[in-house]
């Protein structure tokens, strides 16, 4: 009888694990090794940010920017998150 409150608390303890699934994290094989998909999204974000910097330098938009580092990091992050959402999202 003393363990009844403890038995009622067990589902509450495991409730945060309800979103976990057995399938594992999304990954893809490259040369026999599995890489997490967030790494692909990060690389795509970096490539797009560098490409936009080259484009902005060619069109003189870069001279108008005040916070260049913040701008390019934000553009890369937005691109990586959009790719994640479109490729691996719900």
Automatic annotation (TrEMBL):
The record's principal subcellular location, in a coarse class, is membrane
Q: What is the name attached to this protein's record?
A: Uncharacterized protein YtcA
Location within or outside the cell = Membrane
Give the way it sits in the membrane: Multi-pass membrane protein
Listed GO CC annotations: membrane
- Domain of life (superkingdom): Bacteria
Looking at the keywords, is Signal present? Answer: yes
Q: Which family does it belong to?
A: Belongs to the YtcA family.
- Which of UniProt's keywords are assigned here? Cell membrane, Lipoprotein, Membrane, Palmitate, Signal, Transmembrane, Transmembrane helix
Q: Where is the chain membrane-spanning?
A: 34-57, 69-87
Upper lineage is: Bacteria, Pseudomonadati, Pseudomonadota, Alphaproteobacteria, Acetobacterales
């Amino acid at each position: 009888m003393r363990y009844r409150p403890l038995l009622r608390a067990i589902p509450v303890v495991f409730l945060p694990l309800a979103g976990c699934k057995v399938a594992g994290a999304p990954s893809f094989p490259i040369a026999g090794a599995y890489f997490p998909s967030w790494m692909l999204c990060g690389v795509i974000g970096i490539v797009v940010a560098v490409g936009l910097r080259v484009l902005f330098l060619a069109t003189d938009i870069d001279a108008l920017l005040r916070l260049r580092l913040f701008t390019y990091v934000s553009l890369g992050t937005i691109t990586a998150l959009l790719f994640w959402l479109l490729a691996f999202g719900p």
